[in-house]
Amino acid sequence: MLKDIGKTLIGLWSLIIGLKITGKEFFKPWLTVHYPRQEVKNLNTYRGHIELTGQETDPWKPKCVMCGKCAEICPSGCIHIEFHIAGEDDSSQTEKILIGVGVEIPFSGKKFVPAAKIERELDIFNLNYNLCSLCGLCVQNCPVDAIKFSKDVYLAGRSRQDFEYDLLARLKGQG
Amino acid sequence: MINFLSIPLIHIIVALVAILAFIGLNGVVLVYMERKVAGFIQRRPGPYEVGPQGLLQPVADALKLLGKQLTSPMGADKILFWSAPIISFAPVVVCFLPIPFGPSPNSTGMELNLGLLLVLAFSGINVFALCMTGWGSNNKYSLLGAARAVSQSVAYEIPLLLAVLSIAFQTGSLNLSEIVQSQQGVIHWHIFMQPLAFIIYFISATAETNRAPFDLPEAESELTAGFHTEYSGMTFGLFFLAEYAYMIVVCSVATALFLGGWDGPFFDGFWWFLFKVYALMLVLMWFRWTYPRVRFDQLLNICWKWLIPLSVLNLILTAFFIKLVH
To answer: Residue B50 and which of A150, B105, B192, B218 are 20 to 30 A apart at CA?
Structure first.
């Protein structure tokens, strides 16, 4: 009986402590960021859609070596890459063979040139963000760190087409 | 004007109109207050976008409720279903009549010898309305909520009455104006003589008005919305308004019984009464955003094992001391 009363008194005191805590919190400033008027600053770890990174010497040119690993590993198949061999003016005239999901290699008829020896130029690097599941495998598997996450938190669009990105154009536009 | 008010019929009509206006206005104020308190305790701004500092938010909410369609579920008992919100709301108006808001006789709706009894009796009708919603809605959540509401109210009315009774013993009156008159000067407030009764009254009142941590009849996590699950639009609005009005009633009675009513340091007057009522309301809101909901067995244990024995003890002690003094 006495034990019960003691326990109850301790319980009652804990209720007062609870009130004290919430009472103190009441007078402290807001923790939330009032969005349209303020914006959060710690966006370094934010993982938005992917973006190409430029070369250090020439930021307009992508670091990408066109190996196609990103397109191959993407579980949703949202990356599409096209390129042509340097020197050949029009890539559309040569035949192409598909070496992976969304990756086509130019094939100039008889001779199959080893991929590593070809000097290549990136024509298209498209991202269909509608399909992307933000797994980040492409960024992890890029051998030359040519892809990074964008910090575009406040992404909004009116149609599906708004989320089909031409990443090459974005890189050039950013300059 | 004063002559007009001395005619009983006109006095009551004016009082009823004033009470209804007060209930409506009070609903708006309390919705805003509750949401702001919730926000501040959770360290966010609360309503902010509608009007300056979100002041017009309750008005927007009210307009939304008014504009919504009223529907009744399939298989519902139509008569019970539609009359329940009215039965929940109507008696609360009567509860305001005997409450003395200020020192002048005009600030009491109706002087009654048994004012306290009237308040207690009419506030009990609310449970009946909840019972009707439970049966009439044809919904398991409503039924469970109503069952909980009934057993909770039956349990907590006892310590509430016993706590009130000890004040009635002490003052020898059930007239709220007389009880207020008997505690002029801050040291004579009953809270200092009957602190236990005040604590028991306040806990029981929290449970009676179905406020957190005793909001089991509408426990969102278990019962969707409890007894008012099937109500939309203004029928829900009436329950909501009635709930806030009952909160004001219990806080007003607490103010009149324990905190000296309109009596206060410096200037007596209705502002003291309103200030105390809203301070108690703030405490109720503070409770809500501090404590987690109790389990049902805990709820009944608190009442039957602690509050009722303590209130009986308090009553016996009060009776003993009164006998001793006289």
So the answer is: B218
Domain boundaries, chain A: 1-31, 50-174
Amino acid at residue number B39: G
Residues of chain B with pLDDT under 50: none
Task: Mark B177-213 as b/e (b = at least 16 C-beta within 10 Å).
Answer: bebbebbeeeeebbbebbeebbbbbbbbbbbbbbbbb
User: pLDDT tens digits, residue range A93-113?
Assistant: 556 666 655 566 665 555 555
Place A17 in a pLDDT band, splitting at 50, 70 and 90: very high
DSSP state of A55: P
A-B contacts (CB, under 8 Å): 34
Calpha distance A144→B259 (Å, rounded): 75
Answer whether A19 sits within 8 Å of B290, measured CB to CB. yes
Per the listing, tokens 């509401």 go with: B149
Could B37 and A25 be called an inter-chain contact, meaning their C-beta atoms sit closer than 8 Å? Answer: no
Q: Decide which of 3.40.1280.10, 3.30.70.3270, 3.40.50.1360, 3.40.50.1000 is the CATH code for A50-174.
A: 3.30.70.3270
Read off the pLDDT of residues B104-143 as tens digits, 9 standing for 90 and up: 777 777 777 888 888 888 888 888 888 888 888 888 888 8
Tens-digit pLDDT profile for residues B52-100: 888 888 889 889 988 988 888 888 888 888 888 888 888 888 888 888 8
**CB-based contact B290 A25, cutoff 8 Å:** no
Mark which residues 1-60 of A lie under 8 Å from B by CB: 8, 15, 18-19, 21-23, 25-32, 34
Residue of chain B whose Cα is closest to the Cα of A26: B41
The overall average pLDDT reported for chain A is: 80
Q: What is the pTM of this model?
A: 0.76
How does pLDDT run across A32-42, given as a tens digit for each residue?
888 888 888 88
Preferred mutation among B290, B302, B303 to probe A, highest tally of A CBs within 10 A: B290
Identify which of B55, B317, B284, B6 has the alpha carbon closest to the alpha carbon of residue B165.
B317
B48 contacts on A by Cβ (under 8 Å): 34
Which distant-in-sequence residues (6+ apart) come within 8 Å of B305 by Cβ? none
State which residue of chain A sits closest to B40, comparing Cα positions.
Answer: A26
Phi-psi region of A100 (alpha: psi -120 to 50; beta: other; left: phi over 0): beta
Q: How far is CA A165 from CA A46, A104, A140, B268, B293, in A?
A: 19, 19, 20, 72, 50
Which of A21, A22, A28, A31 should we substitute to test contact with B (largest number of B Cβ atoms within 10 Å)?
A: A22
Asked whether B229 and B240 are in contact (CB, 8 A), the reply is no
